[in-house]
Amino acid sequence: MTHPAGVVERPLGRGRLLGYGVGSVGTGVFSAVPGLLLLYYLTDMLGVPAAVAGVVLVAPKIWDVLLNPLVGAASDREAVRTGRRTKLLAIGAAALPVTFALMFAVPGGVPGALWSGVAFLLAATAFACFQVPYVALPAEMAGTQSARTRIMSWRVVCLTVGILVAGGLAPAVVDLAGGGRAGYAVMGVVIGALMAAALVAATLGTRWVPSRPGPRPLGPVAAFRLARGNRPFFVLLAAFVTQALAVAVMLAGAPYVASYRLGDYGLTSVMFVCLVGPSMLAVPGWAWLARRHGAVRCYLAASIGFCAVAVALIPAVAGGGLAATLALTALAGVCYAALQLLPLSLLPDTVHADAARTGQAQSGAFTGLWTAGETAGLALGPGLFALVLAVSGFVSAPTGSPVAQEPAALTGLLLGFTALPALLMLISLPFVAWYGRLAKEPV
């Protein structure tokens, strides 16, 4: 069998699928740990003012949005010259674990915000070097949508494992190491070592993939100018980014719902597991449904389902019903699995279609734009939820001096967690349907 880009397809056994998917254990850890622990480390361990700590967290995300498309074009140029994307993958796999560990190892006497901020910026750069070519590989590993859905099934399961490791193992290592700055330093080394094992395994496990973009290398400007005419790609990207924003808003709101609506901040981790955990179990089911009924149709159904669950959470959370809230959050996690699996399965179709349209295959350029959009959506989510809190009159206060929130603030955080993600998911539906029409798939 031959790919649309002219590459001979190799059989995809479980070894090759795992060799690719295991990289997402490392990327999942990096995506989750800084958002989960870095802010608290800066404010409560190093005494960094919250506003400064916020800048430390946001600046690397902005840098990533700018950097990812450039890395994508560089990955395509490497693939034209060598037939592989291994060099950038190896650079990211080697540098990311080290810079990750440095984020949580601030030496005494060094300004914590400066050290962690520079380390996080370097880590974000290393992450882009790995993530962008990594996301480009499925388009070159398989020539059929069903095969790529199988690849993505393994990837999403591994990604979920990484996120659960971040949410469960990283805080536990901090506690086992005695807490404080020393505990965080040990955690950085331990989790960094796990990341290194996953990223190096994926780099070595995908060396067999023949990457044949081209026929000529393009600079970033020329690559993006050529990509501009790929309407299916940008419509699919619009749907994916809007949905990433919806999920990010919901995740940002979970601690506030746990604290002020359910009465226990400790329930945040339970809600996190309820959202992420079921996705690992649901992936094989969504892959089977996509093969049977079509990826676009299932993608639309999952988007509608997530929207409906977010709306159903309004009365559940407002009434303080813990069991109903956790059950609905788990149902949202089932839909979330499809929102991760199916768009990434469809992405290579847009790359192959563009190669047929222009005669120039450039997976890296498109995945660079894709990861930039995803990063922007995930970074804007907490900011959008914070805006809802500010508008509704939420009053910030230290944990030791809690403030009784006004009814308007309680309503605001409730709607920010439920109605706002539902609205964003609703906005994404026309883009999903539009993509189906452009790709001539039933919706």
Descriptive report:
The longest helix is centred in the last third of the chain and has 37 residues, at 322-358. The protein contains 16 helices and no strands. It is globular. α10 runs antiparallel to α11 and α12 (295-318) packs antiparallel against α15 (407-417). By secondary structure, it is mostly helical.
Short description:
This protein is an all-alpha fold. Helix content is 81%, strand content 0%. The chain has helices spanning 14-21, 23-45, 50-82, 86-103, 112-136, 138-141, 145-176, 180-205, 220-227, 231-261, 267-293, 295-318, 322-358, 363-392, 407-417, 419-438.
Features:
0% strand, 443 residues, globular, 16 helices, mainly alpha, disordered N terminus
Topology:
Elements lengths: L13 H8 L1 H23 L4 H33 L3 H18 L8 H25 L1 H4 L3 H32 L3 H26 L14 H8 L3 H31 L5 H27 L1 H24 L3 H37 L4 H30 L14 H11 L1 H20 L5
Helix pairs in contact: 1-7, 1-8, 2-3, 2-5, 2-7, 2-8, 3-5, 3-14, 4-5, 4-8, 5-14, 7-8, 7-11, 7-13, 10-11, 10-13, 10-14, 10-15, 10-16, 11-12, 11-13, 12-13, 12-15, 12-16, 14-15
Strand content: under 5%
Number of helices: 16
* Helix/strand/pairing category: mainly alpha
State the shape. Answer: globular
